[in-house]
């Protein structure tokens, strides 16, 4: 398996522009998570999906952020308009649901991340 | 709300020194506990995990962690570190609830091992 795939790996954009980050989870995984990592705040959960349905988006910082999962193999995180304070590394992760694993929780597998710089 | 505390922000050790990174969490119910590692420029990888049973958990690359329920702690240890252990280490907690599959991460501890 190729693991979790994210694109682009690096994105540099100007303030005010729309940014779209993409994620392909591991095939068969039914949970997908979006995280943001910054020096100041560490690793923050932004939103997660179960079977393509958003379950908890309380971590999404503002209305400028939106995430979709149109099917089981693709998710996007969009920032519109982008601001310099959005600069961070954005990680996507996926996992199996607890009911499908022997243990009550299953490991989250992380993608390589997208390093976003907003000028 | 659940929280995870990693009190050591940056640890610097010489090769062969012993390592212990602290992790405390605040959650009253049953939890699942994890340590993830992030090598420079790479994504997070699972180092070890605890669900139940023996509170002393062994992971990859000689790491282990001990769950002490009374102290709400899950400290990471390694008897002898190597230069290649230089990385950032994240403790994470997941409440053991049906249908819940999300992780709460600590802020991370940066480990620098000097050859």
Can you walk me through this structure?
The complex is a heterodimer of chains A (119) and B (115). By secondary structure, chain A is mainly β. Chain A has no helices and 11 strands. Chain A has strands at residues 5-7, 10-13, 19-24, 31-38, 42-50, 53-56, 65-71, 74-79, 88-95, 109-110, 114-118. In chain A, strands 2, 4, 5, 6, 9, 10 and 11 form a 7-stranded mixed beta sheet that branches. In chain A, strands 1-3-8-7 form a 4-stranded antiparallel beta sheet, with no helix packed on it. In chain A, a hairpin with a 2-residue loop joins β5 (42-50) and β6. The radius of gyration of chain A is 14 Å and the shape is globular. The termini of chain A are far apart. By secondary structure, chain B is mainly beta. Chain B has no helices and 12 strands. In chain B, the strands form 3 sheets. In chain B, strands 2, 5, 6, 10, 11 and 12 form a 6-stranded mixed beta sheet that branches. In chain B, strands 3-9-8-7 form a 4-stranded antiparallel beta sheet, with no helix packed on it. Chain B is globular. Chain B starts with a strand and ends with a strand. In chain B, 37% of the residues are buried. The model of chain B has no long low-confidence stretch (mean pLDDT 90).
Set down the secondary structure blueprint.
The complex is a heterodimer of chains A (119) and B (115).
Chain A lengths: L4 E3 L2 E4 L5 E6 L6 E8 L3 E9 L2 E4 L8 E7 L2 E6 L8 E8 L13 E2 L3 E5 L1
Parallel strand pairs in A: 2-11
Antiparallel strand pairs in A: 1-3, 3-8, 4-5, 4-9, 5-6, 7-8, 9-10, 9-11
Chain B lengths: L2 E3 L4 E5 L4 E3 L2 E3 L4 E8 L5 E7 L5 E3 L5 E5 L4 E6 L8 E9 L8 E2 L3 E6 L1
Parallel strand pairs in B: 2-12
Antiparallel strand pairs in B: 1-4, 3-9, 5-6, 5-10, 7-8, 8-9, 10-11, 10-12
